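User: Predict the complex with flavin mononucleotide.
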Amino acid sequence: MDLKETLEALKKRGWLKIIDEPLDVRLEIPHIAYLEVKKPDSKVLLFTRPIEREKGIEYSMPVVMNMFASKEVTTFLFGKEPDAIAAEIEELLHLKPPHDLKGKISLAARLFGLKNVPPKRLGGEGVCQQVKWMGKEADLDRLPILTTWPMDGGPFITMGQVYTRSLDGEMHNLGMYRLQQYDKRRLGMHWQIHKDSSHFFDQYRAAGKKMPVTVAIGGDPLYIWCGQAPMPYGMFELLLYGFVRKSNARLVKSLTNDLYIPEDVDIVIEGEVDPEELEIEGPFGDHTGYYTLTEPYPVMHVKAITTKKEPLYQATVVGKPPLEDKYMGWGTERIFLPLLQTTAPDLVDYHMPENGVFHNLILAKIAPRYKGHAKQIMHAFWGVGQMSFVKHALFVGQEAPDLTDYEALTAHILDRIGPESLLITEGIVDALDHSAPEALVGGKLGVDATGPIRKRDCEVLEDEKLLEEVRKLDDSVVALRQYLTATANPIAVIQYQKRERAKKLHQKLAPLANHLRVVVFVDTRQNSVDNPYMLIWRVVNNIDAKRDIYIDKIIGIDGTDKNEIDGFEREWPADTNCDPEVIEDLKKRGLVDVDEAFLERFQIV
Ligand SMILES: Cc1cc2nc3c(=O)[nH]c(=O)nc-3n(C[C@H](O)[C@H](O)[C@H](O)COP(=O)(O)O)c2cc1C
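Assistant: Here is the predicted structure with flavin mononucleotide placed in the model:
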């Protein structure tokens, strides 16, 4: 199904909300989508009349957002439960030579099914090339490209399928990277240094050749999911498409270069990247919930834009969780479990909670066979593909509660750890990480909670009494709340006015060693000690384990923003907050219906 057919199917099921009001691509459309996907019954959105007030543009194509609006919708888009796809992959990975005729027939049938995996190249043009704007006619202002956040450096294509190939033409890649619109015919290519297209780019740069790029938007929504899937380097993501869909991706050649793209996409932008030209990209409100800092990235010069006769423009908004990438990530997490198990066979399950924004927190359940087994698998994670971006990995044994039962699981972990259960090391971090002292390399924390249950050896005080005692030691503390006080390691969240390093405050707490086990320090900027969902989001974002975890009788975790007090020399980014005036105006126009409690719960403004 292409995008239009998918929307019709979603509409029939009551999963599509159509908004006919003229709405600005600058902030208005993104803010509505941002709020919608945080609701428990979030819908796919179709904005039929996008406009750009400042430039006076009324776009001819509607905008589709929140395509991965919920688990239900995501399962529908896959055509089956992600776990069922994982089971098929597992079966393939464990194919055994057949012993009898029945086994041979069954193996042949399975292998025959794989004929749908490789993409098929078609001759001639596709429906995505019905309308052609070539050369100077190819104007990016024809597309309703969104500016999602108030401090963004400009409009960004946020659901672009970026098609590239290696210099020798042997490897093909589809990656989902955001693209900044600089002007009518230039885009910033935000493929980060660890990603496949960046490796291809290096090859073109070394050879002094221009790199062809084609960006597609829309078509079957599974294409864009494949674009973000962490496939190994050199493996074309459209193989995964064929495997999941059970039908080959059907490709046509771009008009101005040799890159092939799915024939049913809505919009195609063709061009090339001059490896000698870099331009500042960003800032951009990112999926960490913070703005990513500006950095130089390659630039694509657009040579042609083609579309279907009635194209749709697909986009997403990233920011503080939960967002659409929660559901995309859920599919990825489930489907990639069997592949991860090939490197870590004793991994039973894993889960990346959305408020850990994926690479900041992973929960893993293993079947430990020997001492140090959890630590062995931690190192495997930190050494494999995009898993190596993970900053904090918490490991439990098979008897632990389900990894998505957060409260029970946290209690299980706290009952099984002591200072010696923590492993602190260093490795590569996601290019988006803002807390490491330098870009790309930072601290990692592994927690081994696979051991036996422990007894509590501290005396828990009431929150009020504990706050009083803490304030006697340091009056910069403004709030305190304890969590999971029935466990061996209760957590105390301490909010303080940051005039000195959390480490100093941690040292001052030594006289309370009989009442404290794990202390998390947060500052007064947009934190509430009563909002554990957003606290986890903030703290795992802000920690660099080597600098910010203090292992002592009291384990200290510094979740504050870092600055010169910490000897932090990089720029600290701002939160992605919605423009309060835009939200107020949308409320008045009856386009959003959220109350103050909702805005606070997800720290929206
Ligand atoms: C909503 C969303 C936006 C993303 N934006 C970027 C981006 O701008 N740059 C980037 O390098 N990766 C981005 N990613 C992650 C990549 O899509 C992902 O790492 C993918 O596996 C990269 O493919 P590759 O290994 O073929 O390069 C994004 C993912 C999602 C879900």
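Residues 324-343 form the longest helix (20 residues).
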